[in-house]
Amino acid sequence: MKAKDIMEQVKDYYLSPDDTIRNAVNKMRVVKRDDGIVGLKGMIVLDSEGNLIGMVSVKDILKAIIPFYMTMTELGEFTWEGMLAEMTKKVADRKVEEIMMKDVITVSVDAPLMECADLIVKHNLQRVPVLNKENKAVGIIYVRDLYNAIVKVLLDDKEVHNL
Amino acid sequence: MTHEAAAASQPFVMNTTFWTATTIFILAYVVIVSEKVHKTVVAVFAASLMLVLKILSQYEAFHVEELGVDWNVIFLLIGMMIIINLMRPTGFFEYIAIKSAKAGKGDPMKIMIIFAIVTALLSALLDNVTTVLLLAPVTLLIADALEVDPIPFLIVEAIASNIGGTATLIGDPPNIMIASKAKLNFMDFIYNLTPIVIILMVVLLFIIKIVFGRKLKTREELKQRIMQMKEKEAIKDPLMLKKSLFVLGLVLIGFVFHGTLHLQPATVALFGAGLLLLLSGTHEPHHYLAEVEWPTIFFFIGLFILVGGVVKVGLIKWMSLKMLALTQGNLFATSMIVMWFSAIASAIVDNIPYVATMNPLIIDMAKQMWPQETGLALLRHTDLMPIWWSLALGACLGGNGSPIGASANVIVVGMAEKAGKKISFMRFVAYGFPIMLLTVFISMIYVWLRYYVLNL
User: Fold this and answer.
1) Do B141 and A70 touch (CB under 8 A)?
2) Which among B47, B117, B320, B428 could bridge B302 via Cys, Cβ 3.0 to 4.6 Å?
3) What CATH code is assigned to A3-159?
């Protein structure tokens, strides 16, 4: 099995760099998988030509909401009720481009699953975009997809593939 | 013959070596001012050129006080940085800041005044950048809590830190450098500079009150956010805090008596750093040592060698002769020129390279004026002292003149930008420049009255 065999198709589940955080959250919220709305906690960012230029996860959004000065020292005890909401409103219209993670770790469609597993563990990732030969993002592998692959190995001998 | 005497009698010819050293020196300063290359990189590279081209020998650069690295400055800075690095995680500075905000009852005006005083006090004891870096995050949090513009707070803190830092030997790098070169001790600074700094702070507080008095308003319920903060929760490591305060206290006592005890300030600071490292029980000093601001340290090292090169070839002596020709040996005029020129220069360029150049220049000038004197009698000549104080006052207070005039300003502008509130060059100048002019003007009257009229 290769990356392309377990990845989720990108379809139209991606953000554009000009999306605001508000838009991004909405796009992520309404993602459907199989037969219901599941929502996503992270999405890739594609430019107008479909090139992968970044990724946004819930953590990136939280980082944008938390004032930078709080990261400089321990100030958590001195925050107040309603501060998160206030700060969230302040960043609602900031662009995805400003908050996205730009150095995205990717794999190719033909990457072995071990490579995907290795990257996910080494870099503490939740998802890895899969690129085709033209360097366009065609899919995403989630931790869950790898887990499903493992489950198949462990629980059903007949399903064993060349992991 | 001592090295000092050797340096004084250096042949002074405008040969190839002279012009090579001068060119390296000027080019380095131009590139530093242009900020095209990081200043530390420029200083270290230019210093290495002085050595490779044999303008200065390595021995002179490392071991001759007149020409090379001033290790007293280097180790004083390193020692204090290590102490602060060990102290920072205890949460002491956050505690002080929150406590101050509560002492102001959540009123923005009162908080600004108290923060200005706290910043000045801390800056007098620690370096300005550290003080501002420690206080600014809490300032931004408090401004958000009170829903007021943080920019006036940040600018006031930078200004207060530059004024407060002027008060002591350890408060600001120019003072550390001047003290080491002129063999001035901690108490000399307390007697001569602390009084004027207190006057300047009172003036600053009045100005703050007049400028911001009516503008800074907040709502009662927002004040409650401040009053509900429990400053004790800031203390992360009470035991380490006690050890840090003990050592810091010891170090301060050491500074007060270092003249009497014949211990250099760097010795006191290194003792404090060593003792606190030992008391902390750390098995990984790596972290505390790595966090020393090595770029700053190497900037100093590079500058000392760079300046040593032009001292050796006689450029500085030539400049001192020009300056004497200009002032006709009038000491009062000299100290006024030194003060104002230092202030303007420090507002435009980094005051560290400026003072690194001025120190040997003033010593050279003194040698021309009192050729029969050497050593301490020369460096601490009664008539020379007001010139050292004028240099310190001009170089430190000049930093307030523009956002790039002092490191504390650069930090504050950077922090504001990160917080999404840009401080434009002119907005800083609008606050800083008039305050610089006023504080230098008051200092001028002080120097004139104290040293030339009352002869105190």
Assistant:
1) yes
2) B47
3) 3.10.580.10
